[in-house]
Amino acid sequence: MNFFSDERAAELRELFFESAQELLQELNEAGILLESDSGNSDALARVRRAMHTLKGDSAACGFRQLSELAHDLEDLLTPALVVERGEAVAEIVLSAADSFHAMLGSYRGNLQPPDISELRAHIRKLAESPESVSEPQPVHTRPEWTPKEKTRILEALRGNEPVYQVILRIDPSLQMPAAALQLVRSALEQCGDVLAQSPASGVPLQTLTAVHATLASSRTSDWIRTRCHVPGIVSDVSLEPLKVVDDAPRDALQIFMEAETAAESAARASADNGQIESAVEGAAGSPGTTGGMLGSNEAWLRVETGRIDTVMNLIGELIIGKSMFHRAVNEFDQKFPKDPLRNRLGDALSFQSRVLGELQKSVMKIRMVPVEQLFRRLPRIVRDVAKVRKKEIAIEMAGQNTDLDKSVLDALADPLAHLVRNAADHGIETPEDRLAHGKSARGNRLAHGKSARGTIRLDAYHQGNQVVIEISDDGRGIGHEKLVRKAIQSGLVSEKDARGLSHDEILNLVFQPGLTTAEEVTEISGRGVGMDVVKSVMDRLKGKVIVESEPGRGTTFQLVVPLTLASIQALMFRVDTQHYAVPLDSVLEIARANDSEIHEIDGHEVLRLRDQVLSVVRLDQLIVNVSPAAARKNRHFVVTIGAGSRRFGLIVDGLIGEEELVIKAFEDRLVASDLVSGASILGDGTVVLILNVPSVVSHLTRKRVLEVSA
Predict the structure, then answer these.
(1) How much is the CA Rg of the chain, to the nearest whole Å?
(2) CA atoms within 13 A on the CB side of 378
């Protein structure tokens, strides 16, 4: 029986899929921690919490196989087993995370979930091994109560009701766990108000060992203990009161949550004799523990990204309206310079601009998310590559709190994964190779300044209105000669052209499709596809990628992307009657030049600007549908554009000025070309085309290579 409408059930499943991704990320992180330190109790608790939540949520959504797998894993993960079989357990946790990911994809696409029988058999085999049963008394970790249950407990505490933490240990010889759970529930209800209980009905009960409950009751503890001791079902009853410490300045809910943490630690410490120390005393002595979690969760609100995009589009329309209002005020000012109304209109325009600017900033902040969400996925990639390739690789991260527009962040997921995977597979050498080049096994730095364990570093920081994400490694670096030789063999450049390539142009060959320096193609990389994907995504984001490499020292990739794709500060100019714009960050300077100062060398126009030769571009020759000017002027504006290490000049007929432009997506063939990244509309209805600077540079480079080859 479904208690929800189809629409409501679909919403709940969508919410489950979203929260499940966060749980899987938590599972991956904790699994890696367990692999490196099997005694990490915090990592084990994180895995168990994730499994418990995933088990309950998936069962509520009807995903039985996923719920059962999570239940098997939750039962398997005891502290004793993790300590004794840490590496095997960590491997199972990470394998389970992969299986969960595949199952969620199948459920989301209404497909048959993958076969997990092999993984479940492995779990059962590990659970039945002699090492896993060496502990006579199982440790019962307290469950994580839901926000609704915590609220009920808080209300009972504030109402001065006696509240007890109850653990009912189930007889191991029990044959009917479902019926036993109902009898236990009935016994608890006779004792008072059951505020929370785990496990609840409707979840798998094949390995039921204990029932946890929080009970509000006016009965004495002895009376409750006697009533809950159901013969043949309950073998032992643990009962501890939960009270608010009078002199504690903290909130009662915080005390309760700290008590849960302290009680869980006490349960592990006293598992041999089955006793739990006073949770309230533990809470009173640990004011810095995990309190206020519920309050933190209540401060967050999940909002669909599409709704934020709609608000941002409406703000864009308001900005266009502000521009129209500004033009109207200027016209009124010119026609009626002495009218007293002009001052009031000016004040109104200033007020509107200030409020609209604050509104835009506020919505932009909503769209911003920390790059930590992206960085968190990468340690698992490094770990998997290192395991397959038998390498020792550490990963270091910095700048995780750097904010970036979510649409940009999502687009960077694949490029960043490709770069990290390549760094681990091609960049970092094996320990034997690193030792052969004078590097020590224990991290002691020798002649080359590197250890046998390779390191991949991730960093993110703001640079003006852009964000820079760096991926660096201390591996073998990119061999220039090898890269050029591969490019010649692949037919990308001729031997004659290769001799004229600069240092940066050689390194940029790695982005050519189909080019790879790998000696063998593996399941991980080596097909020459990944770097081409990186370049394509960066061009689409109107960003750039910079490569720095030194053979024997390592390689650094810099991904430079705009802070947001919603609006840009741009310099507008005119070519004939068409308006264009370029991002202001790309503009280096503006100069004036006569036709006599522009020369032609090998079919390319160049300009000598302060002892430097600058290639110049005329848009009517670059973009197909731009009509050439009917009568060219003798004197021009030259806008110098910088893109990485490349510089070129745009010859324009006139400058319009600097303005904030809201980027609009049009279906026009010209705007959809790679040389134009978007368009905007001014207050008077004029359409402005926004040039894609990296694509213009790539076009010029390709054109030069093709002409030389011809």
Answers:
(1) 33
(2) 29
Hey, how many other C-beta atoms are within 10 angstroms of the C-beta on 424? 27
CA atoms within 13 A on the CB side of 102: 13
Alpha-carbon distances, residue 440 vs 280, 393, 427, 445, 453 (angstroms) = 51, 14, 18, 6, 9
Band of residue 244 on the pLDDT scale cut at 50, 70, 90: low
pLDDT-derived band at 245, boundaries 50, 70, 90:
very low
What backbone torsions phi and psi does residue 435 show, to the nearest 5 degrees? Answer: -65, -35
Give the DSSP H or E segment for 554: strand 554-562
Q: Is 308 exposed, middle or buried (0-12, 13-18, 19+ CB in 10 A)?
A: middle
Amino acid at 164: Y
Q: Which amino acid is at 541?
A: L
Residue pointed to by tokens 């002649």: 447
Alpha-carbon distance 684 to 579, whole Å?
Answer: 13
Distance CA(161)–CA(445), nearest Å, equals: 63
Could you give the 3-state DSSP secondary structure of residue 639?
Answer: strand
C-beta separation of 676 from 692 below 8 A: yes
Distance in angstroms (rounded) separating the CA atoms of residues 477 and 708: 30
More confident residue, 464 or 2: 464
Q: Label residue 300 exposed, middle or buried (CB < 10 Å: 0-12, 13-18, 19+).
A: exposed
As a whole number of angstroms, the distance between CA 227 and CA 216 comes to: 15
Contact predicate 92/126, CB 8 Å: yes
User: Are the C-beta atoms of residues 443 and 456 closer than 8 Å to each other?
Assistant: no
Q: What is the mean pLDDT of residues 653-667?
A: 76
Least confident segment among 17-31, 75-89, 661-675: 661-675
Rounded CA separation 652/637 (Å):
5
Identify which of 401, 421, 547 has the alpha carbon closest to the alpha carbon of residue 467: 401
Helices (H), 146-210: 147-158, 177-191
DSSP state of 519: S
* Cβ(680)–Cβ(697) below 8 Å: no
Q: What is the pTM of this model?
A: 0.61
Enumerate residues 6+ apart whose C-beta is below 8 A from 658.
569, 570, 571, 572, 584
**pLDDT-derived band at 460, boundaries 50, 70, 90:** very high
H-helix or E-strand spanning residue 473: strand 466-473
Here the tokens at position 600 are: 């032609």
From residue 547, how far is each of 95, 472, 511, 556 by CA, in Å? 35, 10, 10, 6
The CA-based dihedral angle spanning residues 590, 595, 598, 601, taken in that order and rounded to the nearest 10 degrees: 150
* Residue recorded with tokens 């418990």: 52
Residue 585 · residue 465 · CB < 8 Å: yes
Give residues with Cβ within 8 angstroms of 57, minimum separation 6: 16, 19, 20
Please name which of 208, 155, 148 lies closest in space to residue 183, comparing C-alpha atoms: 208
CA distance linking residue 227 with residue 514, whole number of Å:
74
Q: 298: how many CB neighbours lie within 10 A of its CB?
A: 10
Query: Average pLDDT in the 676-698 region?
Result: 77
pLDDT tens column, 607-644: 888 778 888 888 776 655 555 554 556 778 889 888 76
What angle (nearest 5°) sits at the alpha carbon of residue 585, between those of residues 373 and 588? 150
Give me the amino acid identity at 101.
Answer: H
209 CA to centre of own chain: 38
Mean pLDDT of 84-90: 77
Alpha helices in 478-622 (DSSP H): 480-489, 495-499, 503-507, 530-540, 619-622
